[in-house]
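Could someone model iron/sulfur cluster with this protein?
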Amino acid sequence: MKVSYAHMGTSVMAVNALARTLDYEIVPPTPPTESTLTLGVRHSPEFACIPFKIVLGTYIESLERGARLLVSGGGRGPCRAGYYGEMHRRILLDLGYEHEMLFFWPPLRSPLDFYRKLRTFKGAASWPRVYRALRLTWEKLMALDDLEIRSHRVRPLERCPGDTTRAFRRALGLVDAAETVEETKKARSGGLELLDSVPVYTGDPDDLVKIGVIGEIYVQLEPFANFRLEERLGELGAWVQRSIFLTNFARTDILQRGDQGVAKTAAPYLPENVGGHGQSSVGEIIQYAERGFDGVIQLAPFACIPEIVAKSIVPRLSREYNIPVMTLFIDEQTGEGGIQTRLEAFVDLLRARRRGRKDVDDAALSGS
Amino acid sequence: MRDAVIGIPRYLSYYSFAPLYETFFRELGFQVRLSPPSNTDILDAGVRETVNDACIPIKIFHGHVAAIKDRVDFLFVPRLAGAKMHYTVCPKFLGLPDMVRGSISDLPDIIAPRLPMGRDGLQGLRSLYRTGVRLTGRRVQAMRALHNARRALGRRINQIQQGGLEALGFDQPRDADLTVALIGYPYMLYDTLASGGILGQLRALGVRVVTPEMVSTREMRRHARAYPENLFWYYSNRSLWAGMHYMTSGLADGIIHVTAFGCGPDAMVNKLLELESARYGAPFMAITVDEHTGDVGLRTRVEAFVDMLRWQAARKEGLT
Ligand code: SF4
Ligand code: SF4
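Reply:
Sure, complex below.
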């Protein structure tokens, strides 16, 4: 039975590797495009959030290409992600597709259920084989995230616009082609070298405008959904860091998650987990501010409930921590041009503030 | 503390739990002040104060807060929460006190007990009791207030299930030939502003109306079984289950789903109701209300739907 799944940024390469190692015949989901979105919009409720629509579009495309089993990580908690799977299933049935769906709920919620599904999914593969597959997946995820993080640092300094993105694509190709853990490691260092050989301006990276990205996971991770936000910001000369990487909890060089840290930071303003990444968004604004970032961009699907709750607290945070926050709500009507204009204006604002602050500091030093 | 004024916004969960809230604080010795019934001033203030991407009900709620905040000592903004891991509530109810604090300045003391919602409704009121103790320092009195408040709520729920809409203060036409099930959240259906006055319009058309509040807990549970456990949150589940009840029981000639503009869960509930109504051949119409919904536009659609139902009924009669 041919299997497929949603497409979420570069992580799809790791998931492909996982399914292949388990001997599945896969229909690798293709990166979403305008026509994916159109498909999804046509068959989704009007007010469903944009990730729902894009993922539905992706499912339909994969089913058309022969997929028969759709695997999805079920969401949980108060937001809508919890019933995504069920809604997708019903809509696809209504469209006449004959398929099966397998939802993985987070293992902690129902360990037995998780185990049963894992057993179904692993098929005839032995447990050691499953272990090897997971090991490879993890290695790929780490490599992909390392490359992405590096690209964020190189891009704002590149001499020739587009160089970094080209190098990054080639680096991704290396990781995708790797078939073992060893090869993945090699691909990773090869890829990093590619990125490091991009000709750059010399200068103090501390002089770059630093922007933290927060918000809902899908629009953060899927470049199609966020209009390649990180590329755009990098090309505007800003150093971006986003809050969600699938390998976050194993890292120390970016914001920490997984632990109670973010929730605790957010608690005075929002003591509840309101689903999605709402509470994290609140905590992360504070963390970025404390790390000396110049500004924060909140990415959210239009009508995303947790992010709206977070947004209502943003003005207060922005004031108390003296950090500009711009919210981009994204839906199918959002245009590329509008986004670009707003990003340019935001980066300009941050630069001006930075200069202003420096003037103030200089003035303080010279004692006037 | 006696005679201190506690303000209760007349919106959102107030429509479900009014007797509980009011009785509790009155018995504790507070003077209870309600915000006025929703009106356009409240809506305008809400639209002004709230993040502009919020759904209409959340905006209306902020409007209610703005309308009484300066005339009370305490403001009651309950936080509804999932009773257990498997139960959820709309994140906006969960973060309601935080949203209000983030958006409106110069607020009085906010009283925000965490009220756990289970499948069938409120589940445990310990936090309300603790709030009472904190405010008055009297355990016995708080216990008694809670007891009476709970009884008042129970009486109310029974009244509505037996007496129908009349018990909620809405007249019904005497000799109605049609029954329409009006599905939606209490704060959409019974709030004349939020609903666009749809109850009045149906009455004027000589239609009897039934709502989710008239469906017994037993019936609700029966329909709950047809879906994955707690697919939605409390209010959305009730919309879905009540919708199914009226589609399958023959107790209504048609279904109107009143949804709020910008409501996330409703988008999904509505899609399910649509799919199910097609399956059961039940006439179904969805109406989305937003701040610009004109009285006239709404009336036209409601009239057309009722005409269609009457026409169908007449045809059926002609056939038999
Ligand atoms: S977090 Fe936002 S985008 Fe994701 S399911 Fe919930 S409402 Fe939709
Ligand atoms: S359930 Fe819908 S209408 Fe009610 S608060 Fe949540 S989003 Fe708004």
